[in-house]
Amino acid sequence: MTPAALRAAHRRAAHGGLAAIGTDPLTGARRPVVLLVADLLGLAAPTLRRSGDLDLARHLVQRRLSGGTGADRQRAVFARRRSLTDVVDHLARLTAAPGGG
Q1: Per-residue model confidence as pLDDT tens digits over 54-68
Q2: Residues in a beta bridge with 21
Q3: Those residues with Cβ within 8 angstroms of residue 40's Cβ, 6 or more apart along the chain or in another chain
Q4: How many Cα atoms sit within 13 Å of 14 on the Cβ side?
Q5: No. of H helices and E strands in the chain?
């Protein structure tokens, strides 16, 4: 991928999160991000298995895919009233919570 294509893919990923259509860095094809994540986990699986981390990696990927990301939650807060102040307030509450949210 060219640097410009990589920047555009990064921008799309930042805006769409896990629900977005992403760009496969190997082929340049546009594919759902969840499939790109599954491909990445598949590529890393042999090494993760050897290090004893495959089950943990699968668990963490599944948790993120089912629960969304922090950016997903921030976009949802913003969408309610289109207020960046609401997003900052939300983050402040999370930061102040025991355990950091």
Answers
A1: 999 999 999 988 888
A2: 32
A3: none
A4: 6
A5: 5, 2
Residue type, 51: S
Longest dimension (CA), the chain: 48
The confidence score (pLDDT) of residue 51 equals 98
Cα(48)–Cα(81) distance, integer angstroms:
42
**Which segments of 1-101 are extended strands (E)?**
21-23, 30-32
Q: Residues of 69-100 as b/e, b for ≥16 C-beta within 10 angstroms?
A: eeeebbbebeeeeeeeeebeebeeeeeeeeee
Closest by alpha carbon to 77, among 69, 67, 87?
87
- Alpha-carbon distance of 44 to 80, in angstroms, equals 38
Would you place residue 14 in the very low, low, confident or very high pLDDT band (cuts 50, 70, 90)? confident
Q: What are phi and psi of 22, to 5 degrees?
A: -110, 180
